[in-house]
Every structure is written in C-alpha cells, then in structure tokens.
Amino acid sequence: MKLFIRILVTTILVIVLSYFMKGVRVDGVVTALTVAVVLGLLNAFIKPVLVFFTLPFTIFTLGLFLIVINGILILACTKIVGGFQVDSFWTATLFSIILSLSQSIMYKITGGSKK
C-alpha cells in the first residue's frame, strides 16, 4: 500500500511541476504515472551504481554531486519515457530538486515515509 501511495504522490507531483516549470512537458496522466515508476526503478537500480562510481566526487563536493546524479537520472527518464520532455540538464536538475523536496513534504503529510 505504501508503494502505491508513493507512486501516486510522485505522479501527481510530476503533473503539477510540469504545469509550473518551463521546459518540462508531460503528455498526460499515464505518462506521469510511467515517469513515476521509471524514476523509482532508476533510483533503485541505477543510482546506487552511479553513486558508487562517483564517490570521490561526492565526497569532495560534500554530497552536492548527488544533485548532478539526480539531474542525470531525470534526463535518462526522458530518454526512456515517451511524452516526457525536459529541455536541458539545468532544468532537469532543478526539477529533481523540487520533486525531491515536494516528495519529502507529501510523504510526511500522507504518512508514506521511507521506513
């Protein structure tokens, strides 16, 4: 049930953010749902590998390089999901920051914590 709530929250946030951010386009609700699932899979399987291989950069930048990794994952999602477009790397990075902050707030509200 918690997984379903997390996917639903992410879907809604992707739709809302696409309305407010220039450079981010989502064709519809099904596309946003697909983006939520693909982002979850990328974060679960690809992100740990990227974090491992970029660990020296992450340590040197005191963790700020993780923001770059999140932007890269958003760009990877645009290549995988048709109907989801992000104009640039900086837009993807800003989108990932806002999405992460919004998810944290919404998970606290809905009770869908990571534990």
From TrEMBL:
<dbReference type="InterPro" id="IPR007165">
    <property type="entry name" value="Phage_holin_4_2"/>
</dbReference>
<keyword id="KW-0472">Membrane</keyword>
<dbReference type="Pfam" id="PF04020">
    <property type="entry name" value="Phage_holin_4_2"/>
</dbReference>
<protein>
    <submittedName>
        <fullName>Membrane protein</fullName>
    </submittedName>
</protein>
<keyword id="KW-1133">Transmembrane helix</keyword>
<feature type="transmembrane region" description="Helical">
    <location>
        <begin position="28"/>
        <end position="46"/>
    </location>
</feature>
<feature type="transmembrane region" description="Helical">
    <location>
        <begin position="53"/>
        <end position="76"/>
    </location>
</feature>
<keyword id="KW-0812">Transmembrane</keyword>
<feature type="transmembrane region" description="Helical">
    <location>
        <begin position="88"/>
        <end position="107"/>
    </location>
</feature>
